[in-house]
Amino acid sequence: MKSTLTRTLPESSSPALSALTQHAAEARSWALGDLFKQDAQRAQVFSIEAAGLLLDFSKNHLRHDSLNLLADFARDRGVETLRDAMLAGERINTTEHRAALHTCLRQPPNTSFLFDGHDITADIQAVLSRMSSFAEKIRDGSWKGYTGQRITDIVNIGIGGSDLGPAMTCAALRTYAHPELRLHFLSNVDGHATDALLSVLNPQTTLFIVASKTFTTMETMRNAEAARTWLLQHAQPADLAKHFVAVSTNTDAVREFGIDPVNMFPFWDWVGGRYSIWSAIGLPLLIAIGIEAFREFLAGAHRMDEHFRTAPLGSNMPVVLALTGFWYRQFFGTTSQLIAPYHEDLHLFPAYLQQLEMESNGKQVTRDGKPISMPTAPVTWGSVGTNGQHAYFQLLHQGTDLIPVDFIIALKPAHPYKDQHKALLANAVAQAEALMCGSGSSSSNGSDATLPPHRVFAGNRPSNMLVLPALDPAALGALIALYEHKTFVQGVLWNINSFDQWGVELGKTLAHRILDELNDAAPITSHDSSTANLIKRVQNALKS
Ligand code: F6P
Domains of the chain, with CATH numbers? Predict the structure, then answer.
């Protein structure tokens, strides 16, 4: 495969892209340190504040003219038009003929939004109010299990968007959570996970939330069945209603599973799985933090939506975040991006972004089904700092790949250990400086230039720094909305439908077929010899 530096221009080449391509050839020779020397105001000028968040994107290979050219390209690709179409409820998910209206879920309660001639804000608020009163009963102990005891453990059974959002946000807002409730997340169909969890839970005090947009996902249904069997080993079928609720768009399947739709919290097909934390899928978070904090979470996201809707492209935080990512992917040959939150409670944020960005934009055809001749979504990966520094940061500093980093810090801690917090933030800021400035080379920060080669840090490696005032519900809402819109904008730049995920379907179909074969319900046919041998081997092992 050709590197992105030498790849021929996309067929969809435009004057804006040609100008950008020419400019990028020059930009690749810039030293970040020199850009700072040339402009004393650089840090201020290349920073954006929105919805309480600060994005400092000054440590990127960008000048004013670069930003203008990128904004021209974004305009040319229709970022503003498609943004407005998405926010207006047009069916921009063309392969599924669906709108993408997750932004409506966080609109203030006293507004209205007509979709297909119907005010969906009223529906949204009605579900939210049901979720809130249910959550309150769990929180105040008035919802009782089958022996009359209060609920102490809540298990969310779901996967992908029906797991990562609730799991990530509950971890992130741990310090806001009800002190007597324990939240658990069962996603993998691996029985080891099911066994490890069920073996420590008390059926009398456990509530299961079966969360699945489709209510057909294999992993979720198997785990939900296992949980139901486990409960019925202790309780009567009539008791199930006290211990199982559902979150879904599929009422019939919920009823068929044995959950009364009275205990179901619905959402709608215009909410994509990976954009669903704002819907009833957020029920575990609402139970954990209560309705007031949940509303702050929604309001933080709404503030970012408003910024995204109104700010000019060049000073629009999600647009600029998208453009910096596009810049390196398209013109600098990068294949991955690191997400490095310097906050332990954001430890699931990189995994959350993996689904958001890679499932949305890991595509090879355009919205109209033509091959895309640009590289699309890079690999998103990461983990919390400072741990990563003692594992893989070596490669970031001295490896042969250029890997742009998004550092995320929160200024105020939610703990009393001030010295640790200072050390944590010092490390985040230091890593960004070290990546950019290096040492012992021509782009050095003035360090000893006689260092042996293995001690040289070439530097000139880009990063963004995202600064949250604190990891509170509003800031978390804004942070997630920021990355949602970044993902959307990149999809527009690549001319992708970011709201479908057909690439996961083949594996699901084959897994069902192989499961039938393992169950002897179907003959082992039409596989390559490797797959057929593996199926036989598993089948024999399971028989013995
Ligand atoms: O397989 C991918 C996927 O469809 C995701 O897009 C989705 O978030 C996940 O599976 C779970 O789907 P569901 O909520 O329907 O169980």
Answer: 31-90+311-493 (3.40.50.10490), 104-286 (3.40.50.10490), 509-543 (no CATH)
Which pTM does this prediction carry? 0.95
270 Cβ neighbours under 8 A, 6+ residues apart: 89, 98, 99, 100, 101, 115
Measured by CA distance, the residue closest to atom 5 of ligand 1 is 160
Tokens (6 digits) for 15: 């004057």
How far apart, in whole angstroms, are the C-alpha atoms of residue 61 and residue 28? Answer: 7
339/321 Cα distance (integer angstroms): 13
* Nearest atom, ligand 1, residue 505 CA: 1
Q: What is the pLDDT of residues 193-239, one digit of tens each?
A: 999 999 999 999 999 999 999 999 999 999 999 999 999 999 999 99
Residue 372 CA to chain centroid, in angstroms? 23
Which alpha helices (H) appear in 258-335, and where do they start and end?
A: 283-310, 317-331
Name which residue sits closest to atom 10 of ligand 1, judged by CA.
160
Q: Based on the number of CB atoms within 10 Å of its own CB, is 311 exposed (0-12), middle (13-18) or buried (19 or more)?
A: middle
| Residue among 422, 508, 512, 536 flagged as catalytic | 508
**Is 256 known to be catalytic?**
no
Looking from the CA of residue 159, the nearest atom of ligand 1 is: 11
